[in-house]
Design brief:
heterodimer, A: alpha+beta, Nuclear Transport Factor 2, Chain: A, 5-stranded mixed beta sheet, 5 helices, 5 strands, B: mainly beta, Immunoglobulin-like, 3 domains, 25 strands
Chain lengths: 171, 289
Amino acid sequence: MRIANKLAPVLPLGGAILAAVLLSASTEPTVHVAPMDSVGPRPVEEQTQSSVIRDYLLAWQTMNETLSQNRTDQLDTVFVGKAREKLAETVHEQQSIGIETSYLPKSHDIKVVFYSPEGLSIQLLDEVEYDVDIKKGGQSIGSERVRARYVAVLSPTETRWKVRVLQGGTL
Amino acid sequence: MMARTLFSCAFVISLAGLAAAQPALRFPPSVEAGAAFSVSTAGSGDATLYVVGPGDALAHKVHLGENVAFAADELHNAGHYVAILVAGSSPQSVQFDVVASRKPAAISFLAKPSRLAVNRENGISGVAYIFDVFGNLMLKPEEVSFQLSDATGGAQSRSAASHEGVAWVQMNSAPKAGPAQFKAALDSVHATRVVEQVPGDPCSIRMSARPASGQRVLLQTDPVRDCSGNPVPDGTIVSFTETFQGRQSTVDVPLKRGVAETELPAENGAVISAAAGVVLGNEIRWSGR
């Protein structure tokens, strides 16, 4: 289902807010989330469904801000562990070669595939379409439309779900 | 004549398109994380090759027409990458994957709970995420073996195939109380967690009574055990209740060295019982002996 028009029935708790955010600008990606009824081994509660998707989408937004501005100060809000380390490392590499890279999602097709028995990790697959734009000295030196499949693992923290693994591959 | 002119134009455009489509940059569709590899370029002159992804970003100065070599470990984070060759005003781009290396190097193992009662069916869960040496999640299926070994040498073993980098099992807690080693292993890589298995609730209570000094009766339980024969932990409360002529008095006593002991007034004809949690022990009708 498309979040733009069917978010509320799927994600009742955070859905209205998220839908409003997603609809607030035409450049926002469309988001499709597969039903989580058969995800196991632990059932995904409604509140968890909406917060996991909200925080995962926030992670993409944060990744774009991080890599397009070469700043790491936002990473801790949504990334943890290896995912955080790798993005921080990429920022340093980009700084050393003088580029910034934006990652602007056009669409997400998300399927939660595993929620651990004790509720300490959740894994999702995302067939995502996004634009990559590389800038050097403020000028675009190349851009590419990408369709890829991302695997993400999120863990709960005190305030939100944080991305522990974010790994892309060809669809 | 018109038709022939149109055909000629179409042919020229087609050839031009073919020339433009000639890739100046040839990447393999996927490379293994940390592996050295090289890619060929076409044309002549100088260019800069940028390779970017969320996990790595690098640049190479390139002489077009020559190979570009990537050293071992240069691209080590698995992910989807875009390579852009910048030469003049028309950059060329390709996409490729860096995939996790084939050899597992670490298991992130979550075992829960860290403490539970004995004899709980599927009471212990183990979740193993498999990573390569660079911390990339290994997405291809692997057979992970899980073993839960208790203090008496008893062990349960199960294996589970990983799916998208994660394998999980549920195990029963052992009948005997004590620490258990919970291990997840793949090839030579393993991770171990300790799960403390504690006795369950009391299974039954057996109480005896004998006269004590000062018109009192001394009540004492046999050692209190769970249904698997494990001693119930000290501190577990046993309630002694005496009912006499419609009045009831209760004393709560913690187990000490597995036994609960107290004194109550010795009233001939009183009914005395003992209980812990939902388990009721035997009843004694006190007759002074």
